Amino acid sequence: MASLVKSLPFFLLRGEYMRNFLNGLYRVSAFLSAASMILIATIVAVQIGFRIANAVYFKVVGENLGWLVPSSAEFVGFLMVATSFMGLAYTLRKNGHIRVSILLNSVPKNLHRIFELICLGLGTLFTGYIFYHTVFFVLDSYEYDELSHGIVAVPLFIPQLFMLFGLLVVFIAFFDDFVSFIMGREVSYSLVASSEVGQGGVE
Which domain holds residue 175? Predict the structure, then answer.
């Protein structure tokens, strides 16, 4: 199997430049996910501050300042989607996803490898399938000029692009580990799990 893979374009995944590019891609996706979460906290904090200011001003003067963050609920929803999807790949590589490993840990090593290969293959196919259909979902939103219903009318394809990007990166991450496994190398999450043995990181 390894000799077959060597004859395919998968050799790119073994190159230092490709490895650095992929690791950089995963970090960028994680950074965007973290930035989205910070923006959520900022919008919520500012909105709360505005509500307090409005309430105090109304008590003192009897009038409403009318301060608010326009379409705050919609923006928070968009950012929540971005946070979730763009953090998937980095979380996978850092062994952060919940994995039911009772069966894998109780079977012989050879059978364990077969099951692990099946899981990685299914993960790659599943994320690729979702990404493929999400492309058409975003294209439909763009072609039909769909807009959000808040005070600020946002073209829906814009926040959907973050979801699409996150799905693309997690698909690449699964494919990356799938190829690494076929090549006989440790997959990313296994390396992290091995370093956490004895530290409460592995069940």
Answer: 2-195
Residues 6+ apart with CB under 8 A from 67: 50, 53, 54
Residue 150 lies in a domain: yes
Cα separation of 89 and 81, whole Å? Answer: 14
Query: Given a cut of 70, is residue 8 above it in pLDDT?
Result: no
Query: In this structure, is residue 203 part of a structural domain?
Result: no
pLDDT band at 159 (very low <50, low <70, confident <90, very high): very high
The mean pLDDT value for 80-93 works out to 95
200 domain-assigned: no
At CA 13, angle to CA 161 and CA 116, rounded to 5? 85
Q: How many domains does the chain have?
A: 1
Asked if residue 139 is part of any domain, the answer here is yes
Query: In Å, what is the CA distance from 121 to each residue of 118, 147, 178?
Result: 5, 37, 6
